Amino acid sequence: MSVHTTVAPSYDVEAVRADFPILREQVHGHPLVYLDNAATTQKPTAVIDALVRYYHHSNANIHRGVHLLSERATEDYETARSKVQAFLHAREPREIIFTRGATEAINLVAQTYGKANVTAGDEVLITAMEHHSNIVPWQMLCNEKGAHLRVSSINERGELDFDAFQNLLGPRTKIVAIGHVSNALGTVNPVKRIIEKAHAAGARVLIDGAQAAPHIPVNVEDLDCDFYAFSGHKVYGPTGIGALYGKAELLEAMPPYQGGGDMISYVTFEKTLYNKIPHKFEAGTPDIAGVIGLGAALDYLQQLGIEKIGAHEHALLEQATERIASVPGVRIIGTAREKASVLSFVVEGIHPHDIGTILDREGIAVRTGHHCAQPVMDLFAIPATVRASFGLYNTKREVDALARSIEKVKEILG
Questions:
Q1: CA-CA distances (angstroms) from residue 235 to 62, 243, 276, 306, 342?
Q2: Mean pLDDT of the region 96-123
Q3: Are 254 and 203 a contacting pair, CB within 8 Å?
Q4: CA 338/CA 358 separation, integer angstroms
Q5: Alpha carbon separation from 348 to 292, 330, 366, 386 (Å, rounded)
Q6: Can you tell me the distance from the alpha carbon of 193 to that of 224, in angstroms, rounded to the nearest whole number?
Q7: Smaller CB count within 10 Å for the chain: N or C?
Q8: If you write DSSP's letter for every residue of 248-299 in order, what string do you get?
């Protein structure tokens, strides 16, 4: 899907900003300019209120109690599952598993579906632009099983080399795991086309949607992916919560990820019968408040409209790319034709950490480092980048503030 759309006139960014209390903070005497959304997003009042409301009125464990508080908590928890289902356009709520985030979701698939289906000599295919969370779990699986991790290359723009990807697909490919959007480069991958090719080769496909879910409408039925993972804290929800979508027939066949309460239907010392999905994969007391907060965050996004959000953010990305690229000595890292709202760059002769420190003194929060994508840094022969990532509450004046501050960095250190 292209994110190159025009900004809808009904999108009122100032009204949106009023929903986020933290944006009224001062940082070193300056108004906060928060451009670290790819790492984590800020939380609207609607999410904060949902958390407070749960602890004030419904705090109890779920699925186990017959008293009113437990019934309230259980209803709110399962309602949130239905909200995730609707957000991802899954067939039914039981295809949604709550996890601690995209990282745990990927590990869950690797340690359940992967262990059950990958054998010695098989292959897991990823790309060179993956986040460490979509590299390390597959390395661990391949090391344990005697399988091979294959890596598809990217070009100088930070785009997937699709021909190379197709050439790596083969009869031994059991799993393809790919990010929907690169956290380090902003590249939007052609995931539907990737899924079609992988399925034709007999492979299952996991999509790491952590960076896509806040910006791009996701329809797992249309994509036909086998698994889709995302994190709550990147969609304006609480930290420590996320979700995994999996096709029901796959989840039913997969072994449990952890053992404990609520993932069982019957236990004796001789054997255990496991619960139905999704509860089979949700052992122990979950982050009930986090799930409810995630549901509130998805309500907020749906109310604003993902398409409108994406259009607003893309306008900011275009403005920022033009302004930052015009500063002498700046090199943009990641120039894919299809990008989400991530702008990574380096400045000749100045370490990214020094840039980030000076920007912080100007009240501007960006991310500096390898962004948990060290192989990407190696491909571009750099140790780190400065990453500005835009969210639904950012403004054109904040882009201007970023550009002015980079020019100031050049004056001080250049």
A1: 24, 12, 28, 11, 15
A2: 98
A3: no
A4: 30
A5: 46, 6, 18, 12
A6: 10
A7: C
A8: HHHHHHSPPSS-STTSEEEE-SS-EEEPPTTGGG--SS--HHHHHHHHHHHH
Note if 142 is an active site residue.
no
* Domains of the chain, CATH where assigned: 13-31+305-413 (3.90.1150.10), 48-303 (3.40.640.10)
In the 3-class helix/strand/coil scheme, how is 317-351 assigned residue by residue?
A: HHHHHHHHHCCCCEEEECCCCCECCEEEEEECCEC
Say whether 31 sits in a helix, a strand or coil: strand
The side-by-side arrangement of strands in the sheet containing 173-179 is 96-99, 242-246, 227-231, 204-208, 173-179, 123-127, 148-152
Residue-wise pLDDT tens digits, 28-43: 999 999 999 999 999 9
Tokens standing for residue 367: 């991310």
* Torsion on CA atoms 312, 20, 398, 7, rounded to nearest 10: 10
Residue count of the chain, please give it: 414
Using 50, 70 and 90 to split pLDDT, how confident is the model at 209? very high
> Using 50, 70 and 90 to split pLDDT, how confident is the model at 9?
low
Quote the mean pLDDT of the chain: 95
State residue 23 phi and psi, 5-degree precision.
-70, -10
Whole-angstrom Cα distance, residue 90 to residue 87?
8
Quick check: helix, strand or coil at residue 373? coil
- Token pair 């759309």 is found at 5
Phi-psi region of 237 (alpha: psi -120 to 50; beta: other; left: phi over 0): beta
Sheet harboring 342-347: ordered strands across? 330-333, 342-347, 385-389, 367-369
Residues 388-393 have a mean pLDDT of 98
Q: Considering the candidates 23, 86, 358, 372, report the single residue annotated as catalytic.
A: 372
Q: How far apart are CA 322 and CA 403, in angstroms?
A: 10
Query: How confident is the model over 30-79, as pLDDT tens digits?
Result: 999 999 999 999 999 999 999 999 999 999 999 988 899 999 999 999 99
Using CA atoms, how far residue 356 sits from 112, 241, 254, in Å, is: 40, 28, 44
